Amino acid sequence: MADATTPADQVPVTVLTGYLGAGKTTLLNRILSEHHGKKYAVVINEFGELGVDNDLVVDTDEEVFEMNNGCICCTVRGDLIRIVGGLMKRRDKFDGIIIETTGLANPAPVAQTFFVDDTVKAKTRLDAIVTVVDAKNLPARLADSAEAEEQIAFADVIVLNKTDLVTPEELDAVEAMVRKINKFARIHRSMKGDVPVTELLDQGAFDLARVLVHKPDFLDSDAHEHNDEVLSMSFEAEKPIDAERFNAWIGALLAEQGQNMLRTKGILAYEGEDRRFAFQAVHMIADGDFIGPWKDGEERTSRIVFIGRNLNRPQLRRGFESCQVA
Amino acid sequence: MGETVSADHILETRGRHRALDAYVVAATFSRSGKSCAFALGDGTVAIDGGPEPTNNDSTADWARFPAHEGAILCMATDTTPEGWITGGDDGRFYRIKADGTVNLIAPFGMRWVENVASFTDGTKTHLVACSAGKRVVVYNAKDDELRVADHPSTVTGLVFDAKGKRFAASHYGGASVWFVGSKNGAPRKLEWKGSHTGVAMSPDGDNVVTAMQENALHGWRLSDNQHMRMSGYPTKPRALSFTKNGKWLATSGADSIVLWPFFGGGPMGKPPTELAGGDGVTCNLVACHPQSELVAAGFNDGLVVIADISSARILPITAPGHGAISALAWSPDGSHIAIGAENGFAAVIDLSKR
User: At B193, is the secondary structure helix, strand, or coil?
Assistant: First the structure.
């Protein structure tokens, strides 16, 4: 559809998640009170509290609904669709949108909203999901709540907060727990959300380029993990990817196992194409687009990352490798 | 469309237009038809007072009044001859007069006022209503609360029927139809799974149609509980407009005007009629003429056309290039049309016989 919007007009959206008491609101207040010369529209939930003055605060009830589009796990935030539509009427008044979720929220509906709705897709781009983690209480949260685990799994950036409340050894252990779930997110250690704003906002993290510079896990074993823990794994392909084969494979994979696949991201070198193709999915909802060209002399290696439950490493590896041109 | 000299010919010869430098959220003529208000994303209202006596000069500014603190989200004509009602993201429900006077009808705190509607028979009944969050409130001529109606989720669309006896509100899971007059009555619940994002009622009051998140429409015929499903849109149908005679439901959301036949057993089992398509550009808004079987349509590239439904003839009003059309309205007598775009372009065009 020949719509007038170009990506440059798209408003960056940062999603701020984190379990109750992890320090989301402290971080949000820090972001807003820092002098960075930018204005943000802030969407807070009904339990949110904002300590600083901000012109554009929207108080919302999280209204999650199921889409009737055949995806059993496709849920979106109806309230965000309305709010983004409303905010676009005064687009010139802010540089970005920050959405704070409730502590108990599963991040999937927020992320999926940015794939599913036409208007939201055209006018905004999901810049990064930032998850605040409480270094002291994370082990307990992971033991008693699936949401805490999913919030880490979905993160592009993780703020490992309240580091002053644990010993250096405990901190390393907690970071290892985070890494086990999501080895691709950038982790910032902080005491009271004291992370520079430049490390949190306008990251372009969801557009993958930065995420995927991480080396894949060649050395990990191909043993099939049989458990419900969230793990992340990545694969590489040296030869160009056949777009048709990739679409057929990833389509079938997500349709079959999308419930277990929390995040899928990839940068692909399609055959005969000088631009990088960025692919991403949340559960079964996938989206992809060409991003900037491959650099001169850069190795055109395709990479894909999976974060989810019950991932079958050898099967995923074989599947991805079979998408290469023969 | 090829026979006109310039696709902007009508605009140039019969229109007054301005660059208002703010997102045009809605355009609405006053009930008398003498003036037209443009509700803007910067919270102000611009009013074109018509061609006489001062507005003949196409460079003269339209009157511009501050109203809401944030963006205006919705506007409807007031029950008075020269006024409008507006809702904003500042949680306010206002009445605005042609001289710029702003009266608060009701405040709603942090809740956005996302929908407004009005009805008057010109004599006894004067109703204005708005929705904020899950609540709809209807007010009488004195702005006293007449009816408070709560819904299971946020209200996304609000309309009165053609007699002002009932109103319908869309929300998650369907729509609710309420009687204005019965203080404590429960609504008639029209249920259909999914997110419903807007609502229309046919002129005879028998059909309620909602727009859905899943690029489709859903309808209920109240007399026999018949469900209607109308799908196939590439994007969300955001505008629903019945022709005056109720025969057609015009909708946006495709790259053409999509018209569903509400006669001869339709729309069930009947394909829609498509007009003014073929450019691959999304139709953002449609508005049916208040009397004739004509429909105006605004597209995402700035093109506005009027289509004659029976002859399928298309008259271009503005050419592509004026910005994505975001507001479209007929004057009450159908002699003028108002147009607004996301980039602030606004125009009033005189279509009367000369």
Answer: strand
**Structural contact between residues B55 and B48, judged by C-beta atoms closer than 8 angstroms:** yes
Enter the pTM of the model. Answer: 0.87
Flag if B154 and A82 touch (Cβ within 8 Å).
yes
**Residue ranges of B 18-77 with Cβ closer than 8 A to chain A:** 22-23, 25, 41-43, 70-73
CATH of the domain at A55: 3.40.50.300
Digit-coded pLDDT (tens) for B169-200: 999 999 999 999 887 789 999 999 989 999 99
Q: How many residues does chain B have?
A: 354
pLDDT along chain B (354 residues), means of 10: 66 90 96 95 91 56 91 96 95 94 94 96 94 96 94 96 96 96 87 94 97 95 94 94 97 96 89 90 97 96 95 93 96 96 95 84
Listed by number, the residues of chain A in 57-76 with a beta carbon closer than 8 Å to a beta carbon of chain B are 57-59, 61, 63, 65-69, 76
A93 in the same domain as A23: yes
A282 lies in which domain range?
216-321
From A10's Cα to the closest Cα of chain B, the distance in A is 15
**B255 touching chain A per CB within 8 A:** yes
The CATH number assigned to the domain holding A295 equals: 3.30.1220.10
Say if the Cβ atoms of A86 and B153 lie within 8 Å: no
pLDDT (tens digit per residue) in A183-194: 888 999 999 888
Residues of B (158-177) whose Cβ lies below 8 Å from A: 172
Q: What is the ipTM of this complex?
A: 0.86
Write out the DSSP string of B135-165: EEEEE-TTS-EEEEEE-SS---EEEE-TTSS
**Integer angstrom CA distances of residue B105 from B102, B136, B139, B352:** 9, 14, 9, 35
Dig out the tokens for A3 from the structure: 């719509």
Q: Quick one: A200 and A270 in the same domain? A: no
Which pair of tokens denotes residue B36? 């037209």
